[in-house]
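Dear support,

I submitted the protein below through the web form. The confirmation email said the job was done, but the results page showed an empty box. After a refresh the structure appeared. I'm attaching both so you can tell me whether what I see now is the final result or a partial one.
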Amino acid sequence: MIEKNRFNLIDEPWIPVVDVGRASLRQIFSYPEYRALGGNPIQKIAITKLLLAIAQAAATPKDDEAWSAMGADGMARACLDYLERWHDRFWLYGERPFLQYPKLDGSRLLSYGAVLPEIATGNTTVLTELQAEKPLPDEDRALLLITQMGFALGGKKTDNSIVLTSGYAAKTKPNGKPASGRHGVSIGYMGYLHSFLQTTTLLKSLWLNVFDRQQIDAMDFYPEGLG
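What the results page shows now:
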């Protein structure tokens, strides 16, 4: 039975914002006075990547001149239009859960603490109360989902027995057994240095980090262009 659509990331407050608390995606692009993202450094990077992905999809300018003319306000308006157009794709639960694969239903279930490095699960010793696992409200589940998209830890907790692409063999050892899970794309084998331009407000910071099409075409690591 498919779960009913609920908790839309566009409408519900889930993003940590300095001096504000939590904000929705719509609020992020509606309030130019927001100074910066809150949360820990990993959460800030993960959310910044999501917000920039939305901005690139909604408002990639042609060149530097178009980028300058658009400004942070023009970028924000385009992002709000984009979110309104794709509102039904941002449900955390439902028929099309955001950034989730319904085909994974039936894989080995673990508690949320299993993917939180600061939480003790399984036979790990709990040294302080901060390491004890607690129930996660929906806003923290949304934040964890976004963080896991890039910063998932590798290891044996990952259920690699399910393969979504027929013929993909990287999840299997030579003996046919499932291999250990690989780390997220934002971690890298030796670690990555995530760098973003920052200024006095969140919207202006996002605008400063938006690539135009000329820049994208000139980058060797984006051979297929935007998207």
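Response: this is the final, complete result; the empty box was a page-load delay. Strands lie at 6-8, 15-17, 21-23, 91-93.
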